[in-house]
């Protein structure tokens, strides 16, 4: 226990020391978003028929089981998307202390509970208690409490084990590709989860098999215990709790075993075989980048992930008997691949010094070509295949493919030099290959920024193609080429003018910050905060007023006109949760914008010691 | 004749901490110049600013008369740099790194291929032909770094801690390459905190302490009658804290 408490204290200290206004902003934004989701989960406990057994329409238990399955999948696959999960305390730190694997794992597990995500999840799990109350059974409420805690431990442990397994998988190419495939499919399923709900809506509730499967997942065991207690089926309730305990013991053992492998194993080994045949400076950059794409297993994983995500994202509409999205698989793949490579320069780390020492050589262009050569053929093939399967339409998907390819090839280098997230140099990364930066919040933001901005570059071609057909393809090619050329030139000039500053940022892991009064000047904000502030201030009104308050008023008045108010379009149990969600979302957006722009009290940042 | 490297009034502060405080140094052509100082004295920061990898708050640097910030293309073709601890194109093999860099510098392909082969052979990196740089040992990283610094035939080498973590055999190889370079008219600036090494290799030396130049000149001027180590300890005013023993280690 002493080890566990020490590790927990250590993590608190690390978090405290690394906190600055930027990071605090992100933590708060994350907490607000998490609490909204947790609030939504609790709201679910108030929806539908709580009674155990067969009911008509929505069953509260089924809905909760589905919600917790989503939470669990989020815990398991979230780290894949946000740079390897929580690595505040790395197992490598303790290799020389000589702890037995079990004790190490237990200590790290204890430290894992310090943080926002576990707290938010605990709030979400409180819906079990609400459910118990609605079942009108004191026994259910009583059993909900241990069920909550055990479920949280299961979530955290599943997350840790999954990340560790990924770490091992990324040591071989086969593993990297397999992991990319499964992660892509599951995250796409999470993103497209509404499809299942719409499908279930058509059959009037979650089918019995689905509801059974949801409960058999470890995320549903707490629910089983609560429902069993309400029925007075004590053996079943106790068995569910005991199963969770057993799972925890097994997972802890598995994690301990995986930790030993992580700290003992060597780096992934890929050999270089092809001789480099380039003859020009640009050809050399392309050759270097192409080799990095094929030899870096993390990049292998990212590309496979984007591919699996795109294919599943568009094809899961087939469950509803719709194949209309298939021609857009290529477009989704291109955007996702762009998002994955958003931190192009940050991932390579301080190797930028070589670029600075060879002025005059155009590095950005070579990277753009390499990116296009890697992503382009696959994207185009997906589009053509999708359109061929569905028998068209052809112009719109092709126009989008061309426009987005060029758009992403322009946006990616541009955003990676303007909003550089300092990474960990490749040769210094620890045992978690997904971890390319300490700042995973910014990495996630950058990925979304590429999806958003990259998506915008497809708008002109999309509009023309949907109105006039084939001319849209020409527009897509033209805007794509312009994006590659223009954004590339901007990135190049930024690299020329700010190269040493970018290198310094990567070296120290911190951005140069300007200290000023309480309100930060917009120009002084880091790009990411500028994006948060811009989006928050400009778009926060939409969810808050029309989609939230106005829609709520209209719903209360029973207005027939649905217009563009989402809350009035969704089927009945969902109307009010949507209103509440929209209001909270609006508040969160304003809150985020406020948070990044306002400095509560000017505080000295910890300054990077001069590297000397 | 312009100096190989002329640093004038270089200054850099990171927030409140002044890392480099108006450093002036002149490295004459054909000299083997050692920069010594304690950890954190400002050696790395000074060298990074001198070659254009870090923008100074004030002051400037000229390489054979070419201003590093105003004429970077001219200045940077004359210098080869080995920074300490920075990344390389990690997923390339040693030969590929050199080919890539040579082409990036606009060198003809056949010249690049020939020099890369020669450098790999001399630095004994050709045995690890298929190994990616990310799998190199620290010593091998230093050697491939040195190879990239030498590839384009610079007239000045700026090397930050070139011997750190390098095994004795490789160190001897590197030393003889550097000596040969200076004998052929080249100039070398290296930083180190190993006094014996600097004494053995360099003809000029500068002592940096707390971001300032504590002493600079020819080796004999700086060390006087004693050893460089004695002169250094006297200059930086170390208190000899090592005399305090660690009580629990002696029985």
Task: Explain what the structure shows.
Chain B: Pfam families: ABC_tran. Chain B: Residues 5-235 form the ABC transporter domain. Chain B: Keywords: ATP-binding, Nucleotide-binding, Transport. Chain B: One of its GO terms (molecular function) is ATP binding. Chain B: This is ABC transporter ATP-binding protein. The complex is a heterodimer of chains A (612) and B (251). With 612 residues, chain A is mostly helical. Chain A has 3 domains: 2-16 and 28-264, no CATH class; 282-508, no CATH class; 522-597, no CATH class. Chain A has helices spanning 2-17, 21-44, 60-81, 101-112, 116-125, 127-134, 138-169, 173-191, 193-203, 208-216, 221-231, 234-264, 281-295, 297-315, 329-340, 344-348, 352-357, 363-390, 395-418, 440-457, 459-468, 471-508, 527-539, 541-557, 566-569, 575-597. The model of chain A is unreliable at 513-517 and 601-612 (pLDDT under 50). Chain B is an alpha/beta fold. Chain B folds into 2 domains: 1-78 and 155-236, Rossmann fold (3-Layer(aba) Sandwich); 86-153, no CATH class. Chain B has 9 helices and 10 strands. In chain B, strands 6-7-8-3-9-10 form a 6-stranded mixed sheet, with helices on both faces. A 4-stranded antiparallel sheet of chain B has the order 2-1-4-5. The N and C termini of chain B lie far apart (62 Å). The chains are: A mainly alpha (612), B alpha/beta (251).
Helix count of chain B?
9
Number of strands of chain B: 10
User: Percent of residues of chain A in helical segments?
Assistant: over 70%
String of helices and strands of chain B = EEEHEEHEHHHEHEHEEHH
Question: Which residue ranges of chain A are poorly predicted, with pLDDT under 50 across at least 5 consecutive positions?
Answer: 513-517, 601-612
The mean pLDDT of chain A is 80
Assign the structural class of chain A, choosing from mainly alpha, mainly beta, alpha/beta, alpha+beta, or little secondary structure: mainly alpha
Can you tell me the CATH topology of the largest domain in chain B?
Rossmann fold
Major beta-sheet overview of chain A? none
Widest beta sheet: strand line-up of chain B: 6-7-8-3-9-10
CATH superfamily of the largest domain in chain B: P-loop containing nucleotide triphosphate hydrolases
Stretches with pLDDT under 50, minimum 5 residues of chain B: none
Helix content of chain B: 25-40%
GO molecular function, one term (chain B): ATP binding
InterPro entries (chain B): AAA+_ATPase, ABC_transporter-like_ATP-bd, ABC_Transporter_VariousFunc, P-loop_NTPase
Keywords (chain B): ATP-binding, Nucleotide-binding, Transport
Protein name (chain B): ABC transporter ATP-binding protein
């Amino acid at each position: 226990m002493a080890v566990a408490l020490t590790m927990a204290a250590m993590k608190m200290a690390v978090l405290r020391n690394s906190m600055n206004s930027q990071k605090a902003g992100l933590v708060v934004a994350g907490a607000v978003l998490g609490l909204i989701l947790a609030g939504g989960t609790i709201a679910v406990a108030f929806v539908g028929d709580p009674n155990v057994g067969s009911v008509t329409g929505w069953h509260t238990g089924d809905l909760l089981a589905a919600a917790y399955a989503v939470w669990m999948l989020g815990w398991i696959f979230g780290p894949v998307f946000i740079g390897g999960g929580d690595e505040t305390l790395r197992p490598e730190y303790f290799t020389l202390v000589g702890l037995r694997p079990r004790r190490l794992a237990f200590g790290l597990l204890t430290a894992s509970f310090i943080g926002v995500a576990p707290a938010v999840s605990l709030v979400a799990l409180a819906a079990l208690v609400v459910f118990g109350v609605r079942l009108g059974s004191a026994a259910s409420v009583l059993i909900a409490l241990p069920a909550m805690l055990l479920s949280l431990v299961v979530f955290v442990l599943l997350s840790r084990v999954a990340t560790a397994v990924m770490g091992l998988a990324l040591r071989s190419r086969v593993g990297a590709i397999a992991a990319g495939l499964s992660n892509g499919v599951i995250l796409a399923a999470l993103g497209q989860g509404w499809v299942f709900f719409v499908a279930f809506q058509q059959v009037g509730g979650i089918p019995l098999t689905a509801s059974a499967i949801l409960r058999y997942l470890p995320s549903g065991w707490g629910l089983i215990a609560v429902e069993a207690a309400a029925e007075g089926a004590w053996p079943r309730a106790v068995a569910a709790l005991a199963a969770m305990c057993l799972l925890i013991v097994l997972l802890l053992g598995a994690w301990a075993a995986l930790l030993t492998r992580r700290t003992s194993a060597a780096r992934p080994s890929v050999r270089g075989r092809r001789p480099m045949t380039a003859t020009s400076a640009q050809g050399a950059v392309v050759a270097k980048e192409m080799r990095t794409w094929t030899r870096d297993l993390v990049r292998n994983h990212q590309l496979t992930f984007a591919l699996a995500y795109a294919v599943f994202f568009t094809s899961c509409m087939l469950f509803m008997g719709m194949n209309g999205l298939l021609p857009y698989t290529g477009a989704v793949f291109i955007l996702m691949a762009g998002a994955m490579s958003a931190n192009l320069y940050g991932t390579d780390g301080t190797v930028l010094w070589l670029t600075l020492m060879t002025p005059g050589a155009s590095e950005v262009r070579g990277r753009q070509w390499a990116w296009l050569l890697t992503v382009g053929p696959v994207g185009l093939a997906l589009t053509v295949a999708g359109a061929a399967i569905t028998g068209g339409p052809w112009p719109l998907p092709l126009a989008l493919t061309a426009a987005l390819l060029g758009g992403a090839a322009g946006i990616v280098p541009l955003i990676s030099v303007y909003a550089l997230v300092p990474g960990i140099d490749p040769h210094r990364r620890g045992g978690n290959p997904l971890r390319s930066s300490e700042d995973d919040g910014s990495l996630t933001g950058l990925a979304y920024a590429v999806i958003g901005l990259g998506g915008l570059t497809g708008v002109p071609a999309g509009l023309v193609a949907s109105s006039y057909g084939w001319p849209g393809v020409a527009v897509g090619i033209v805007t794509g080429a312009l994006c590659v050329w223009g954004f590339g030139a901007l990135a190049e000039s930024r690299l020329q003018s700010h190269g040493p500053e970018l290198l310094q940022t990567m070296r120290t892991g911190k951005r140069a910050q300007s200290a000023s009064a309480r309100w930060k000047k917009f120009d002084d904000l880091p790009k990411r905060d500028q994006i948060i502030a811009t989006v928050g201030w400009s778009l926060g009104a939409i969810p808050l007023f029309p989609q939230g308050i106005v829609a709520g008023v209209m719903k209360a008045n029973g207005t027939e006109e649905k217009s563009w108010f989402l809350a009035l379009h969704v089927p009945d149990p969902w109307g009010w949760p949507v209103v509440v969600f929209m209001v909270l979302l609006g508040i969160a957006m304003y809150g985020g914008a406020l948070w990044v722009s306002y400095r509560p009290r000017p505080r000295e940042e910890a300054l990077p010691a001069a590297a000397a | 004749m312009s100096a190989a490297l002329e640093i004038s009034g270089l200054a850099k502060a990171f927030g409140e901490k002044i890392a480099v405080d108006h450093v002036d140094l002149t490295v004459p052509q054909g000299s083997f110049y050692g920069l010594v100082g304690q950890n954190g004295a400002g050696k790395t920061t000074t060298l990074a600013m001198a070659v254009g990898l870090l923008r100074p708050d004030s002051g400037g640097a000229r390489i054979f008369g070419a201003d590093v910030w105003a004429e970077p293309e001219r200045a940077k073709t004359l210098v080869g740099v080995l920074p300490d601890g920075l990344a390389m194109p990690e997923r390339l093999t040693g030969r590929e790194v050199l080919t890539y860099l040579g082409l990036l510098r606009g060198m003809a392909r056949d010249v690049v291929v020939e020099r890369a082969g020669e450098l790999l052979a001399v630095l004994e990196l050709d045995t690890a032909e298929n190994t990616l740089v990310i799998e190199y040992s620290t010593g091998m990283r230093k050697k491939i770094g040195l190879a990239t610094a030498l590839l384009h035939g610079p007239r000045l080498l700026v090397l930050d801690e070139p011997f750190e973590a390098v095994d004795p055999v490789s160190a001897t190889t590197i030393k003889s390459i550097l000596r040969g370079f200076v004998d052929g008219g080249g100039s070398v600036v290296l930083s180190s905190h190993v006094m014996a090494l600097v004494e053995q290799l360099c003809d000029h030396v500068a002592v940096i302490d707390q971001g300032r130049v504590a002493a600079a000149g020819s080796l004999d001027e700086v060390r006087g009658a004693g050893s460089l180590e004695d002169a250094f300890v006297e200059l930086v005013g170390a208190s000899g804290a090592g005399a305090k023993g660690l009580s629990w280690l002696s029985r």
